[in-house]
Design brief:
GO terms for molecular function: ATP binding; ATP hydrolysis activity. It comes from Pontibacter qinzhouensis. Keywords: ATP-binding, Nucleotide-binding, Transport. With 257 residues, this protein is α/β, with parallel strands linked by helices. The protein contains nine helices and ten strands. The chain has a domain of 74 residues. It has a six-stranded mixed sheet with strand order 6-7-8-3-9-10, sandwiched between helices. Strand 7, helix 6 and strand 8 form a beta-alpha-beta unit. The two termini are 13 Å apart. Bound molecules: adenosine-5'-triphosphate.
């Protein structure tokens, strides 16, 4: 259970999904998904490999089109947007993907300023430096500003990746397996960072994970994808207090305390 209760505004849905369906040829991946994400909330999406978690995130970010259902993101129906409007909306969504690697030939500073310079061309050097310092301080790595990614640990690279995502001040954060491949202590640090980002920047986040220690540490609410729908939802305890064998085996297989 999370120790610090964040401010969640249940009257403000930043994502509202209804009746979402998506199939690839004959294979129905999402079979009527309903999902709301509230302002300020950390929502964990659980599910076995291949259940459609990434497909869901790709639909939310406009990278894939749904077959049926409504997907509303920050008040906009993503299907009705032009490419230009979609690109603008995407700037309000921060993606922390497993493979969102840093550019190896650039310093930490250059990695961080890259999205800023590309998207806000009229910013002064002073303003760029100010924002870089804020996000680096937020992830606790101010001292690495002139280092190369190869000089950082896996956990530090992950943090810089999150800092790079924060630099455009996203309203929504999407974390795909944020603790994958990290040792247990670094996992704890990344979980703490996800909670810190939520409180400090008042972001609303979807966290996809298999790591139930992470799910319990960061999730205000959890949902579990089973057979193409969210069959379980609630707090960590509520989701796993069930006789459903599918849920029990997911827990037994994935939980290491
Ligand atoms: N572009 C695509 N074309 C065809 N099939 C696809 C495509 N994208 C995803 N799929 C299929 O949809 C299913 C769900 O994939 P998805 O990547 O969303 O799973 P996941 O729950 O994120 O799994 P994992 O935890 O392993 O990442 C898989 O069977 C996958 O093969």
């Amino acid at each position: 259970m999370k120790k610090n209760i964040p401010k969640i505004d249940k009257s403000n849905k930043v994502i509202a999904i209804k009746g979402l369906k998506k199939a690839f040829d004959e294979f129905e991946v999402l079979r009527g998904v309903d999902l709301d994400l509230y302002k300020g909330e950390n929502l964990v999406v659980l599910g076995r490999s291949g259940t459609g978690k990434s497909v869901l995130i790709k639909i939310i970010s406009g990278l894939l089109r749904q077959d049926e259902g409504q997907v509303n993101v920050l008040g906009q129906d993503i299907n009705s947007l032009s490419q230009k409007e979609l690109d603008k909306l995407r700037l309000k969504i921060g993606f922390s993907f497993q493979n969102s690697a840093l550019y190896d030939s650039m310093t930490v500073r250059e990695n961080l300023e890259f999205p800023l310079i590309r998207n806000s061309r009229d910013m002064t050097r002073k303003e760029i430096d100010r924002i870089i310092n804020i996000v680096l301080e937020a992830v606790g790595l101010s001292q690495t500003i002139d280092q190369m990614p190869s000089e950082l640990s896996g956990g530090q690279r992950k943090r810089i990746g999150i800092a790079r995502t924060l630099i455009l001040k996203p309203d929504i954060m999407l974390y795909d397996e944020p603790t994958a491949g990290l040792d247990p202590i670094t996992c704890i640090e990344i979980n703490a960072l996800i909670n810190q980002v939520q409180r400090r920047f008042n972001t609303s986040s979807i966290i996809i994970t298999h790591d139930l220690t992470c799910a319990r540490a960061v999730g205000d609410r959890l949902v579990m994808l089973l057979d193409g729908q969210f069959q379980r939802q609630g707090t960590f305890e509520e989701v796993f207090e069930t006789d459903d064998e599918r849920v029990k085996s997911f827990y037994n297989y994935n939980f290491i305390d």
